[in-house]
Predict the 3D structure of the following.
Amino acid sequence: MSFKDTYRLGVYEKAAPAELSWEERLAAAKEAGFDYIEMSIDETDMRMSRLDWCDEQIYELLETEKRVGIPIETICFSAQRKYPLGSRKWEKEAKELLRKGVLFARKMGIRIIQTQGYDCYYEETSDKTTRERFYRNLEEGTMFAASHGVMLAMETMENDFMNTVEKAMHSVNRVNSPYLQVYPDIGNISNATKDVAGDITTGRGHIAAAHLKETVIGKFREIPYGTGQVDFPGAIAKLYEHGVRRYVAEYWYCGEENWREIARSNREFLDRQFEKARQLLGLPEDISA
């Protein structure tokens, strides 16, 4: 078995134009060489409305996945920016949103929801009260997810509350459930600490998957691969060393006409980073030998 066969690399839904049908989106991801898609449930009405799909709509998408030959396996749940679990104003809506997300994931056969490390976002200011509310509601949501066999995994964000694995582990340790883990964003961590490898190590045994995203100092989105600060081989090597085998290429479609070529190029770029990581780890190309 080759080293490449030991990990799987998905792609973020927003890497392709929003107007594509699911069949077109899935086919494009497959053609670019990705192994699965990470669905976005963000703050827009269009994407949040998916949580209200009837069974027929869900089954139709599942059939499309089967027909095209590539699955949707994870959800990036950034709608929680609008309704954070620590919000005083939106607490009821935040809890209901997470419950709906879990039920939707269960019906879709989606294994992991990447939950957002925001105790509050718009209008409200983070303090002891919002943080305590966040932890309480996160625990309640995790227990609900556990009853449906869906894992929640905390993303490392661009905020001071949860911008590192070490900070995300406070939630994991506090809730203390196998259904709450960490899903770090390597780009965000690179903007939070110079010791990315050391930070990753603080989550050893609790990292479900990782976002591979490029960043520059102070900027967190829409940075082309290879033009920023992220040490992908070093981060991947440390993640792999700690047993992480699921990754997502997180980048955005920004109106480029050649977005399909960009998708193929990004897959190739990341595979080169994995190859460099393999060499850092001293592993043979054929790891079954």
